[in-house]
Model the fold of this input.
Amino acid sequence: MEDTIFRVATRDDYRELAEWLVQMSQAPAQHCLHTWAGQSAKDLQQQLLGYWDDSELCYVVALRNGQLIGAMGSEYDEELERGWLHGPHVATEDWGLIAVMLFTRLLAELPACIGQLDAYLNVENTRGRRFYAQQGFEEREYLSFDFWWTPDERLVSGDRGCMLLGKEHETSFKQLYEALFPAAYYSAERVIHMIGQSHQVLVVVEGQEVVGFVVVSVEEGLSAGETQFLGVREDCRRQGYGRRLLLSAIDWLLDRAGASGICLNVGEEQFFARGLYESVGFRLRYTGIGFRKGGNHRFEENTRRPRVARGAVEPPGHSHRSALWHHVHEVAALDLRRHPN
Done:
């Protein structure tokens, strides 16, 4: 270990780091879904630098003879006192030792207020799953499924019957959103505030009431869009609104936001709605498992003081910022849980 150096990544490190992380993540057995969701190295670099510039990301790297052999990072939100872990990623035979050293150093670098951490791994990453179990993390009960859509799957049809959310329907939207997603990471007010920046809301209106909506997002400079929240009022389900909203989301993300692909993430309890997603062109890409540790307290010394990742109604462990799911993103289809359209 004398020739191994552990240090915090600087802004200038992220180009090489992104390329290395993409290479490391190709094998499901080494894949962390918080780190990489299938985007290019350039897109990943830009995404990470966006977090870094906002003081919401810390990465620790391990170098041996000047070569990158390991990395582990965390997005974090000091207001929420939460972190979302990337990795551990290690390219040497002493994987376990390097992983522990990376984790220990990362915890020392994160803000002291961070009291909860989440991780989100490809279900085939058994070594990573053992690592988090050894660090005292709780493995989530349900799997999470990432679907991906590309333009060659596009369905061309007539009017979807959906519209962009306007001022006249904001009150109705807020009421429905808060009823369907009472514990979501984003409040209805915050979603509305982000319209025209990174988010957009499309709605189905009957009379003067919003009976269904979809919240989509795409981050500036990134090529992937995301379907984050999909909801239909309970008494209006099983009438095709969910499919119309998904098709409208695809139209807007491609034609207005310029996305080249779209992601959608659902929990295992919603997986039976797979037929709906596939009917509009989504295809299953990754299956993930989430881990969590901590809460409203600091971690015990014998757990190396870890922290944990995001989730409210979001899929296990996803973070709020990643353009490709992550983060847990809170991608949910409450109207699809019991009543697939």
Q: What stands out?
A: Confidence is low (pLDDT under 50) at residues 296-341. Residues 4-141 form a domain with the Aminopeptidase fold (CATH 3.40.630.30). The radius of gyration is 20 Å. The chain is about 25% helix and 30% strand.
